Amino acid sequence: MFEKVEQLEPKAPTLDQIAVFLAVVETGSFTGAARRLGRAPSVISYAIANLESQLAVNLFARAGTARPQLTEAGKAILSDSRALSIAVDGLLAKARGLVSGLEAEVSLVVDVMWPAKKLVKALDDFRRKFPTVALRLQVETLGAVTHAVMQGAAAFGVSGPLEMASDVLVRGPAGSVRLVPVAAPSHPLALIEGPVSGVQARDHLQLVLTDRSILTQGRDFGVLSVRSWRLADLGAKHALLLAGMGWGNMPKPMVNEDLKRGRLVELKIEAPGELAYPFHTVYRNDAPPGPAASWLMERLASA
User: Mind spelling out the 3-state secondary structure of the chain?
Assistant: First the structure.
């Protein structure tokens, strides 16, 4: 049972009272709290007495102890007090960021082909550098990345190849990823010894990543076969390749482990050169990214 202070109903404490309460708990004494907060011990005692009165419970057992000991009520309230203090610290940090021009939230859209490990590393660095800035991430295919930026759904994007000129958009290079033709070990193309000709590849079902946006609707990227299945989800394409349903081009980082473990085989399809999937950053010139978004965009572009 909690020892109650005579009062009809608890009242909301002030943030200062919560700070004093935590200081007493963390320093182990009223005197220690006074030193930490730069106040007289009598002021600390008065603040705690007022807090107990407002909450209608005794927080410390003072009689018979050299140092104030938390009562059961004090222990019950301690975790909520710490959570409140952390929330206030976060609020103040966010306010300081907003005053200095830092965004409250960064929204970005990334092409599904972008290597996941590099994205995770960049976002982890972002979290550490801008702990008060919220983040909203979309993953899209092909023209859907640029479409999201043009519609204002994202501050910036990391897009795949998109041959379109627009006075609205600002674009910059962001590297590329190698695409490799792969199939399950049991697939007929995987059983061919030596190079696979374009004619042989055309005779087999090719799994092709397609676009949900109108910007690249009807465009093909690396399509050889006369028979194809169009998939708007790279994960589904990956699963069908593993199941031996067809062959297709995949970003090398995504299938490295499959190739190493023999779940997929890289096909040596005769081609004039290596198939690369270029990336570029994109944002609206009338809505340039803020400080945090600019940092993240540059971090991704340099990855």
Answer: CCCECCCCCCCCCCHHHHHHHHHHHHHCCHHHHHHHHCCCHHHHHHHHHHHHHHHCECCEECCCCCCCEECHHHHHHHHHHHHHHHHHHHHHHHHHHHHCCCCCEEEEEEECCCCHHHHHHHHHHHHHHCCCCEEEEEEECCHHHHHHHHCCCCCEEEECCCCCCCCCEEEEEEEEEEEEEEECCCCHHHHCCCCECHHHHHCCCEEEECCCCCCCCCCCCCCCCCCEEEECCHHHHHHHHHCCCCEEEEEHHHHHHHHHHCCCEECCECCCCCCEEEEEEEEECCCCCCHHHHHHHHHHHCC
